[in-house]
Design the sequence.
């Protein structure tokens, strides 16, 4: 019996040594790890062209540098949105909505996604195809997958990319963004493969050069994330000086009649019009800053990009392209600088909150932790980090 167990153990060890990277999520010897990825791709049906492309793939240190340095999201919502919602993008967006009106109409009819939604992503991601990125896509994905910081996000994209290469949809040396996105609205390979639509009828799905393909595919992706046909996404509002602030927040969806009862109005002071939908009240810079009702469709923006600042900016650009005026920034309370934010996150982490990485960025987890501490300390619950909050946390220790 013992001999049999020893033989079985030896066979298992030999099998593991033969394909060491198949079960290895990340790290270790790069070439051995790639062999495991190749085995997975081969089992998924990837042929010679895709496998040869993987064999030639190399790690790119520039990709890792970009992954570690996403400082853009340290900006406030007003700073970021003012920079991103530019006069150029508004002008070009309007021009493209007119130029490709028939394609946008088809996308709306087939997928239920309004044209300004698509145009806004098209603008923010690549300035309508002008800046698609020059990173070698396969090298970027293998680099980020081999790296052990976030392999769960990137490794599932390798086989779809190899499939696209193997089928001749994209070349082996296709380039795009540093995080592996391709084309004019920066599609990950899995969406390119699974949601690609031939919008111009030429038999190909070309997300780098064909505007109709881009528009139709982007609509298909948005629909697939749960977009509700003909429903709103955001609506700017004016909030009173005092209300039950603990009821605010993106996820606390209430009828518009309730918000109206608490004194929330349209930006010009007129009453809200009930639309039989529920919405949360988003205060990206606290109760004294800009305010927006956010509907179920806003969640799709967070599916596209998990940054609340980016998502709200994209939603606002779509609203502007749909005819809404520029939002009122109002007069938010001073926030925290980078060092102060990191100090606040450190204190919140010490209290048991999951704030993710202590990076000085006001992400979703940090906002929720702030709300809970504001409630505990008797402060207005609006998720906005202020020097007052940081001081009270220091005193309460």
Sequence:
């Amino acid at each position: 019996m013992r001999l049999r167990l020893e033989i079985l153990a030896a066979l298992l060890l030999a099998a593991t040594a033969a394909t060491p990277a198949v079960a290895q999520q990340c790290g270790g010897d790069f070439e051995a790890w790639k062999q495991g990825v190749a085995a997975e791709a081969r089992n998924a049906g990837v042929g010679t062209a895709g496998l040869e492309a993987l064999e030639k793939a190399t790690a790119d240190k520039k990709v890792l540098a970009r992954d570690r340095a996403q400082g853009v999201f340290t900006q406030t919502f007003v700073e970021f949105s003012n920079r991103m919602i530019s006069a150029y993008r508004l002008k070009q967006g309007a021009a493209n909505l007119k130029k490709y009106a028939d394609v946008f109409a088809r996308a709306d009819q087939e997928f239920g996604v309004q044209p300004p939604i698509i145009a806004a992503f098209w603008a923010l991601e690549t300035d309508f195809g002008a800046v698609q990125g020059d990173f070698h896509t396969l090298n970027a994905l293998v680099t980020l997958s081999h790296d052990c910081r976030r392999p769960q996000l990137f490794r599932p994209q390798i086989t779809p990319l190899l499939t696209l290469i193997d089928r001749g949809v994209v070349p082996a040396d296709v380039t795009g963004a540093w995080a592996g996105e391709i084309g004019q609205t920066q599609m990950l390979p899995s969406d390119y493969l699974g949601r690609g639509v031939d919008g111009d009828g030429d038999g190909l799905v070309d997300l780098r050069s064909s505007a109709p393909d881009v528009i139709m595919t982007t609509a298909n992706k948005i629909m697939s994330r749960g977009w509700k046909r003909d429903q709103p996404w955001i609506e700017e509002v004016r909030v009173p000086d005092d209300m039950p602030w603990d009821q605010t927040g993106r996820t606390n969806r209430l009828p518009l009649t309730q918000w109206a009862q608490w004194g929330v109005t349209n930006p010009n002071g007129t009453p809200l019009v009930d639309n039989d939908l529920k919405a949360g009240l988003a205060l990206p810079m606290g109760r004294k800053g800009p305010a927006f009702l956010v509907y179920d469709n806003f969640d799709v923006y967070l599916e596209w990009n998990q940054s609340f600042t980016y998502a709200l900016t994209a939603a606002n650009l779509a609203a502007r392209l749909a005819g809404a005026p520029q939002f009122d920034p109002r007069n938010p309370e001073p926030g925290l600088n980078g060092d102060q934010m990191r100090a606040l996150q450190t204190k919140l982490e010490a209290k048991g909150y999951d704030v993710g990485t202590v990076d000085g960025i006001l992400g979703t987890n940090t906002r929720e932790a702030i709300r809970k501490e504001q409630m505990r300390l008797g402060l207005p619950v609006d998720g906005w980090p202020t020097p007052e909050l940081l001081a009270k946390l220091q005193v309460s220790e």
Notes: The first helix runs from residue 2 to 18.
